[in-house]
Structure formats: C-alpha cells, structure tokens
Prior knowledge:
This protein is 30% helix and 27% strand. It is of the alpha+beta class. 45% of the residues are buried. Flavin-adenine dinucleotide binds next to strand 2, helix 2, helix 7, helix 8 and strand 10. The site of flavin-adenine dinucleotide (FAD) has 28 residues, from strand 2, helix 2, helix 7, helix 8 and strand 10.
Amino acid sequence: MKPAPFTYRRPVTLQEALEALAGDSGAKVLAGGQSLVPLLSMRLAAPTMLVDINGLPDLAGIEAGPDGVRVGALARHSDVLADRAVRQTQPLLGQALQHVAHPTIRNRGTTVGSLVHADAAAELPVVLTLLGGSVEVASSTGTRTIAAHDLFAGPLESTLEHDELAVSAFFPALPPGAGVAFDEIARRHGDYALCGVAALVQEERVRVGYLSVSDVPTVVDLTGVADTDLGDAALEHLDPADDIHATADYRAQLVRVLTQRVVASARRAA
Ligand code: FAD
C-alpha cells in the first residue's frame, strides 16, 4: 500500500519548522521515520504535511552534566547508546536502549521521537517516567516543559499540541547511592517486549516502571513490599492484556518474575 498524498517540507531553521506546523493542523513532524513511515505506508496515519526536521542539525546534541542528560530531537538512539558520559550520568538510558529494536533502526530512530510517539510497548517512555524527566517543546508562540507524568495521554498519544515540536528530552542523573536496572522479555531480541521492567532503588525507596502491561508507561512505588510479593503488589496497578503474542496470564507471570529479578539487580547496583 502507498501513503496518502501529503506535502513535504524540509525547513532549515527551527522557526521555519514551527511556522510550517502552525500553518497546517494536519502537519506531522518527521524525525527518524522508523514509526511514522510504516504508519503512512499502512495508511494508519494520513497527515496533510510532513515537516522533516532532519535539516536542523542543531537539534542533534547530547549533553551529559551533573544534573542529567539532555538529548536533542535529532539525536539517534545509537548516538545516545554510544555516549560514555551518558552511561556514567544515567546508566538506565543505555541499559534500556540496548533493547530498542535493531542497530539499523537505532541508527535512524530518535530518542525524542520515541517519547513523543508514546508507544506503551516502548522502553524510553518508561525510563523517562521512572526517572521523573521531562520534554522541552516549542511552538511559534513560545516554549514549555512537559513533565513525563503529564506527557503520555494514552496508547500512541502524547499531550503535545499539533503545532508543537519536541526540541529535547531531559533524563535526570542517577542520585548518589541509588541503583538502576532494566530487563525485558521479547519473542526475539529487538522485537517490542511482551513485558519490560525498569527499577530505581535509593536507600529504602523502591520504584518500578512497566512497559507493555498497561496503556501508558506505569510507575509503581513498591517501597516496603517483601521481595516475594513485589510482582503481585505491582499487578494491582497494571492491566496486562491478551494479544496475538501472549496471553494476559503469561504477561502477569512475566511481571512477577521480572520485577523480583530487576529490583534485585538495582539493589546490587546501588
Ligand atoms: P518518527 O517515526 O519520525 O515519528 C514518530 C512519531 O513521533 C510521529 O507521530 C512524529 O510526528 C512524532 N515526532 C517525532 N519526533 C518528534 C518531535 N521532535 N516533535 C514532535 N513530534 C515528533 N521502539 C522501541 O521503543 N522499542 C522497540 O523494541 C522497537 N522496535 C522497533 C522495531 C521495528 C522493526 C521498527 C521499524 C521500529 C521499532 N521501534 C521500537 C521504534 C523506533 O524506536 C522509533 O525510532 C521510534 O519509535 C520513533 O522515533 P523516530 O525518530 O523514528 O520517529
């Protein structure tokens, strides 16, 4: 199947990109194209205009500092994964990115695009939510910061307005004495996970994030829960569902097994 007709714009300044978005309520940003292009080809999305941001290299920056990691809208998953300073500042990013698709897709797909795409089966939305990160967005009328807990409205739905461009994402640094860990089960390495779990442990506090077992990335506070009860306590906040890849019962079992395993790893890392 071929995409529905659309106008293509490739701006060379941010202002030009924002004006293009503001001028057409059916416009969509094209970043790495790893999610949008398949959707166009299957006619599951039919934007009237594509605003290709690949002509804006100023958005490709990755900065790791004492407070955290800022990733620009054009930084590819592979660049973030390869950055040593990122791994030192916030190891959870690299741990999760290893599970995002395959190298060819990571070479093109962007970390910010993955956040805005808001797939509940994706790794990075859970990482951003667990860490309490945020996304900086711009429009022709100004800028604003959206905290992770306000970013994900539903399956494949973020809270960005049609005329807003996400210019960067901020992932807070690992706090002193804290530990993080990530693991997931997929049918094949690089496939979307049947269930994925990220944990952040700091002193007695235990917070755990889940992907593929609810409509939006979900973070559960499991502080004070006995190790053997961690999975069942988390399942009270999750909604695993049947699909062609796995039953809801199997997903619930993955929550139990992975939660215990990932929390133990985060404790060892702390
Ligand atoms: P695009 O495809 O260009 O855009 C996706 C959506 O986000 C569009 O609606 C677009 O308008 C919007 N958008 C993108 N950037 C911006 C921005 N800066 N501002 C506003 N809106 C924006 N992902 C995973 O997380 N885990 C996986 O296991 C995984 N497996 C994959 C396997 C395959 C075979 C493929 C093809 C993809 C897979 N992906 C996976 C998706 C991949 O990570 C994508 O790169 C990512 O989801 C979207 O990033 P992108 O830059 O390609 O965005």
